[in-house]
Design a protein that fits this description.
By secondary structure, the chain is mostly helical. 77% of the residues lie in helices and 0% in strands.
Length: 115
């Protein structure tokens, strides 16, 4: 579910940065129907000069936080998948310290707002 929210806010931040409000179909291509409806509601806030700065700031913050949470929560899974690769370079590597490396990377990359 975090990934789904991240996709929605990625699309909103991308649309705002690109000023491509007329290309909503491009921005929503990875969204399900419910998210697409939410996207169209939120785009109206970005198009409104009185609310656009606040809406873009909010969307950027949600995107950054969702990426941080996703990075932290998936650290253990990533560590399990890549432990053997880490052990090739570091025989002392174990699931705990590799998980900690992934968690540190997620924190160090915050706020990740690339679109």
């Amino acid at each position: 579910e975090i990934s789904d929210k991240s996709e929605l806010y990625f699309a909103l931040v991308w649309a705002a940065r690109s000023r491509l409000y007329n290309y909503k179909e491009v921005a929503t291509r990875n969204l399900d129907e419910e998210q697409s409806q939410k996207f169209h509601e939120e785009i109206k806030k970005l198009e409104n000069g009185e609310t656009s700065d606040w809406a873009h700031g909010f969307n950027s913050g949600v995107l950054a936080m969702s990426r941080l949470v996703s990075g932290i929560t998936s650290a253990h899974i990533m560590a399990e998948k890549t432990l053997d690769d880490f052990k090739e370079d570091d025989p002392e590597a174990n699931i705990k310290n590799v998980t900690e490396r992934f968690m540190k990377d997620a924190v160090d990359e915050f706020p990740m707002l690339d679109t």
